[in-house]
Amino acid sequence: MMLTVDRLRLGFAAGKRVLAAVDGISFSIAKGETFALLGESGCGKSVTAQGIMRLLPPAGRVLGGSVSMEGQSLLTLPEADMRAWRGGRMAMIFQEPATSLNPVLTVGQQIGEVLERHLGMTGAAATGRMVELLRQVGIADPERRLNEYPFQFSGGMKQRVMIAIALAGEPELLIADEPTTALDVTVQAQILDLLVRLQAERGMAILLITHDLGVVARMAHRIGVMYAGELVEVASREAFFSQPRHPYTQALFKALPDMSRRGQRLTTIPGQVPSLAAMPAGCRFAERCARVMPVCREQSPVWRDEQSHAVRCHWRDAGVDADAAGGGHEITDLSVSAGKEFLRVADLKVHFPIRKGLLQRTVGHVRAVDGLSLAILPGRTLALVGESGCGKTTVGKALLQLIPPTEGSVLLGGQPLVGLRGARLRSARRHMQMIFQDPFASLNPRLRVGEIIAEGMDALAVVGDARSRRETMAALLTQVGLPEEAIDRYPHEFSGGQRQRIAVARALAVQPSLLICDEPTSALDVSVQAQILNLLKKLQSELGVAYLFITHNFAVVEYLAHDIAVMYLGRIVERGRAEEVLRTPKHPYTQALLSAIPLPRLEGATAVIRLSGETPSPANPPSGCHFHPRCPHAMDVCRSRYPEPVDVTATQRVSCHLLP
Amino acid sequence: MMGFQIVLLWSDILIWLLVAAGVGLGVLIVRTPPLLSAWRNVGANRVGMASATVLLAFVLIGLLDSLHYRVALEGKPGQKTQYAVEVLSVLDALVTPLRTRNEKTYSEPFATRLYAKETVDVPGQGTVREYPRLKYGGKHLAEREDEVAADAGFTAFRAGVLAFLGWLAVAGIVSGVVGHGEAPGTGWRRIWRGETAFAWDAVLVTLALMLLVAVPLFWLSGQYHVFGTDKVGQDVLYQILKSVRTGLIIGLVTTLVMLPMAVLLGIVAGYYRGWVDDVIQYIYTVLNSIPGVLLIAAAVLMMQVVIDTHPQWFSTAAERADLRLLALCFILGITSWTGLCRLLRGETLKLRELEYIQAAQTFGVSSWRIIIRHILPNLMHIVIIALVMDFSGLVLAEAVLSYVGIGVDPTMTSFGTMINNARMELGREPVVWWSLTAAFAAMFILVLAANLFADAVRDAFDPRAA
Question: Most buried pick, A5, A639, B122, B305, via CB within 10 A?
Fold first, then answer.
């Protein structure tokens, strides 16, 4: 074994107490192996990585245990010697490529730093090595790009540079802390491919830290599941995906939204991860476990090891999916008839001027949304899907008139919205509300929950006297699954999922017919995401509210959407009913997008279509079809003319020259 | 019993309004849990609480000095009562001996004789040049002038013991309150083990130090000039006490002038952007590019001309000096709002893009309501941090401006005027050092305490530090 972590305990000093964030975890990684640490936010997986590198924040403390690499104990090394290990023997790549590179140094200087420190390479030799490294991570024209600054690279390219820096010291162990979480699906697929290729070439060990079961399925050889600072299950990839043993792991799988679960309630894990200060004495998962037994609350379970599949649980039943549908009650899928259109958007354009020079003259436009048409039917969910920068969030804001559209019309029940002002706009807004991505930024921290919910009711003058208002608020909170007492509490007392519920309650307070949900679950953990998706689905069946669901997460789309519109660079390239778009995608972009999603299953994706490059800038879109530079089927006509939309079926409409 | 007439100077009104506002803010804080928890953090900070104790002592002196009155003159019965031209404060009344027992000119701390030789007629010896005996300093010693050290030491020791006993009483009361309803002694133990939520140990230690210094000092000041006397024989300790109010007013009233302007313009610029932002930015860029001292000098000199040409406005000299002080506060406020305004504009630019603001916009909440409900409360930490940080800067600015001669009225005692007067004597031999040293030390303690307190407040309120 190359890296062995033995009963490692790490903690944080809080006042006079030290709270253990990682409590006695042991695992080992062999050469050429990828070990994935899987867990939800706050479970201690990143702290573990920092502990191995000895890069804990100032409040962090090593409380016990050992980390040894190639027989050398790392925790007892003097700091000066440790520096030779960091970067030289083990290297790390981080989640956010935008902040992990120094913006004032060229890429070459940042790679050269590692070469000089660990290999003593300078001058021409170093430059040669840098060029080689950049070529290895798939950066074209490396000689020129060495002298460029990070801002000249796109997100995926920056992550490639980060990998090149990590590789420069020829490490034997690469720690990747959520390396693709901040990237788009198509770029994520490129980076994961790159990591697999580099590992095969160099025989590196990889410690992959992630919360994404799909990435784990794609990358890992062995998997360790962490919960509340402890490892609860360690298994090989095959064993893990075919037969998860720990109730927590099983619940995680069941909480994943997916096409096959449409119409069903997702299984959720009730409650929250216990806080560091109040860890239960027995099994830490006991409070949330569906299989809890009295012994769980008293005694921490020990490891049971069977055929390289270790699990830490008192519950012995191996039952695979014993209750595949047992946890969820069936909700009858709304077979909403295609009634009268509720919202119709025609040829919507939102252009942001680019101003330059002393007199701020407009020199060009960012075409965030460029001629978009869609219709939303009452009680249905339309998913607007696309990668970052395609303009999907701008569409949501333009519909609400938060950003004035440049051109086009938005009809709400036949009433034009564009250009409305004052009281008339306010009354129109009553019919549409928005739920935002980040539940931590969307609630004012200085207002009580009651005040937050009442804001919309006040502004739109929904209800009159104080008592009936309080009753309405209490009813709303019950509806979204929060206790009534929440009215008098502040947002910071709630967890991310609960905050998102408050945000939903706030939007529902004015009884809208359409909710625009802008990535409402992307900041949440899988188990919490399932709760919110269930809630949204329940509300739709109860209230008949329509959703415009803006997201990049196809799993959520598959689970929730009735209709799908795929956006690329400000335009819709394909739309239709969910089944049509997901089963028979016609546009090459949709096909590539769907195949790039890493699936949390053993069989994985078949015949992945790899897209080269990244989404071009909307300030300067390619001529003709916007997708042609990345399209595997590009033809001459694609370069010169934007394709007209073609009706494939009565409901599916695609803009592509490939279709007759 | 002598009659008196209450005199309300403009600065008194402002300072008591500030006290009222402070009390109001306190009530608001207690009612707002997030604010309360932030202030609890300040309360748990040992350095912060120690400096707050010192600041509180200064504020107390300043407040006592802000209750003014005029004593009725003795007149014939039946006649309309006449009041003295001299405006006194409660502080003056409390330290009457310090105020009235003036020597002829300079004398050293604890001296029994003047600092300069004078020609005296001694019966039987003709004229002799010698250091004349002080009228008040060490008077009780009479002929035993060489026993000053022993006498002063003994008095200081007695006063120190008394101070310690007083401190024990205070500490006992505090520990009783802390350990209320528990076994006797628990409160005491909890305080000194640092187990209380509020940093009582720091407060009590500071209080002990302050009492051990202040009580002997005031005790001795009845018999000696502990900090010496200045050119006209006035006690330096008295001047120091009087300077505190000037410093506090400059520090507090100026922020009062600058705050509404900075907050309003900063938020409006950040929230509305566009041409409003452009106009406000131009204003503060222009204001910032005029040398501040020049602007202040021009304004203060103009104000002085106005005061000089309208003597009928003022019934006493104190009112004249007071108006000039306020004018100085005003002009300092006008030149110093730009920094805070810029900070608030930047923060507002960030806040207005946050999702809860957008959520409010989708509800059609009006812009002013968004500013008041959503933006202002989320900017308060910056305002509070800026306020306490600016305070010490302004106290120092007053000293510099008075030194240059464009500060407060020359008749008004302030740290700046004290330093300015002492400056002349630095060149003489032997040097007159006590006036400058005392003013410097007092100002240093005030500003240091304010800065440390500001640090504690910033640590508690800055979301990034958490």
Answer: A5
Q: Are residues B370 and B456 in the same domain?
A: yes
Same domain assignment for residues B92 and B144:
no
| CA gap A5, A332 in Å, rounded | 49
CATH number for the domain spanning A290: value is 3.40.50.300
Whether the CB of B33 is below 8 Å from some CB of chain A: the reply is yes
B138 backbone dihedrals φ, ψ, rounded to 5°: 65, 30
pLDDT, averaged per 10 consecutive residues of chain A (660 residues), comes to 90 84 91 92 88 89 90 90 89 87 92 91 91 88 89 86 90 91 83 90 92 89 92 91 88 82 79 81 86 86 82 73 41 50 87 79 84 87 87 88 87 81 78 87 87 83 75 88 86 85 90 89 83 89 90 85 90 89 89 85 69 80 88 88 87 86
Surface of A (439-478) touching B: CB under 8 A: 441-447, 452, 455-456, 458-460
Domain carrying residue A573: 343-431+512-655
pLDDT of B183 higher than 80 = no
Given CA atoms B131, B134, B138, B142 in this order, what sign does their dihedral have?
positive
Q: Are residues A350 and A260 in the same domain?
A: no
pLDDT at B267: 95
Which residue from A minimizes the CA distance to B32? A446
**A612 in contact with chain B, both atoms CB, cutoff 8 A:** no
Task: Please give the structure tokens belonging to residue A251.
Answer: 């619940």
pLDDT of residue A334: 42
Same domain membership, residue A347 and residue A308: no
**With an 8 Å Cβ cutoff, are A441 and B360 in contact?**
no
Query: Which residues in chain B are closer than 8 Å to A459, comparing Cβ atoms?
Result: 360, 363-366, 369
Mean pLDDT, residues B355-375: 87
- Number of domains composing chain B: 3
Partner A contacted by B274 (CB < 8 A):
no
Specify the CATH number for the domain of residue B285.
1.10.3720.10
Q: Kindly give, in sequence order, each residue whose CB lies less than 8 Å from that of residue B61, ignoring residues fewer than 6 positions away.
A: B91, B241, B244, B245
Are residue B447 and residue B362 in the same domain, yes or no? Answer: yes
> Which one of B196, B363, B382, B383 makes the best mutation probe of the A interface by having the most chain A beta carbons within 10 Å?
B363
| Claim to verify: residue B263 and residue B349 sit in the same structural domain | yes
CB contact under 8 A, B32 and A446: yes
Q: Which residue of B has its CA nearest to A491?
A: B34
User: B392-426: per-residue pLDDT in tens?
Assistant: 888 888 888 888 878 888 888 888 888 888 877 77
Shortest Cα distance, chain B CAs vs residue A433, angstroms: 7
* Tokens 């039987």 belong to residue: B124
Tell me which DSSP letter residue A484 carries.
G
Q: Is residue A64 part of a domain?
A: yes
- Taking contacts as CB-CB distances below 8 angstroms, the residues of chain A near B360 are 455, 459
Are A444 and B361 within 8 A, CB to CB?
Answer: no
CB count in 10 Å sphere of residue B281? 15
B193 and B261 share one domain? no
Residue positions counted in chain B: 466
Per-residue model confidence (pLDDT) at position A604: 59
Which domain range does residue B378 map to?
A: 243-461
Q: Where are the alpha helices (DSSP H) in B310-433?
A: 317-351, 355-362, 367-370, 376-404, 415-425
Q: Are residues B271 and B172 in the same domain?
A: no
- Bond from prior residue into B430 cis (ω within 30 degrees of 0): yes
| Domains of chain A: total | 2
DSSP type of residue A642 = P
Amino acid at B158: R
| Three-state secondary structure call for residue B124 | coil
Q: Which residue carries 């901040």 as its tokens?
A: A182
Q: Between B359, B364, B365, which is nearest A442 by CB?
A: B359
What is each CA distance from B95 to B3, B89, B249, in whole angstroms?
A: 19, 10, 21
Same domain, B180 and B268: no
